Prior knowledge:
Layout: H1 6-11, E1 23-30, H2 42-52, E2 56-62, H3 66-71, E3 78-87, E4 90-95, H4 107-116, E5 120-123, H5 136-144, E6 150-155, H6 161-174, E7 177-181, E8 193-198, H7 203-211, E9 214-217
Amino acid sequence: MPAASDDAVARHPHLAEPCRAGWVRVDLHCHTMWSGDSTTTPDELAEAVAACALDVVCITDHHAIAGARRLAGELACRVVVGEEVRTQRGELIGWFLTERIAAGHSPLDTAASIRAQGGLVYVPHPFDPLRHNLHESALADLHASGLIDAVEAFNAKTSLPGLNARAGQWAAEHGVAAGAGSDAHVPGGFGAAFVEMPDFDGPGSFLDSLRRGRLVGHHWDRPRPWTARVLPGTTGD
């Protein structure tokens, strides 16, 4: 992957640092227009990925995997098919999915559905009340049931550093892998946070690599400028 563009580095200065040889930059949490609340089109995503020199993006649209499945064959980087799911007690993310996970079920049932497909269970923004975080008792129940693979210890849209720090501390205390993601809903958000980790091949080595990874990022949640635009349709995807 070539170096990040000057424009991307101006937004996210940490992109100027080269990635270690044999390692990859992985955004564990990002969105496209299939999310409904994101405006990032496939062309914009392709440009953003190239500009930020990302090697892997986990596309985790809200209640949709069609966009991720389509884009897996269109982007220069690798795509992990994921989904951000609203459970009865907050949000969960599934990685390496083959089928969409239904919303509105309990966290335990949702996590079990993710695992049943061979996927990994990721807890996004676990202590940020502005991001539909998972209730703390539900987090404890999932951990006690052995149904958490990783938690998000750095979310670029979480404005209070203490909330990310608390997530990192929880991960360390409970022996759970820690991750980072841009949570980007617009093209400029890509590159704000990611994990640099050894390269991987599939869900098993992914989690092993994540445990050895380095979280990189800064807070970036600028207001979206209003523009009149027509997005491509996603009907039938």
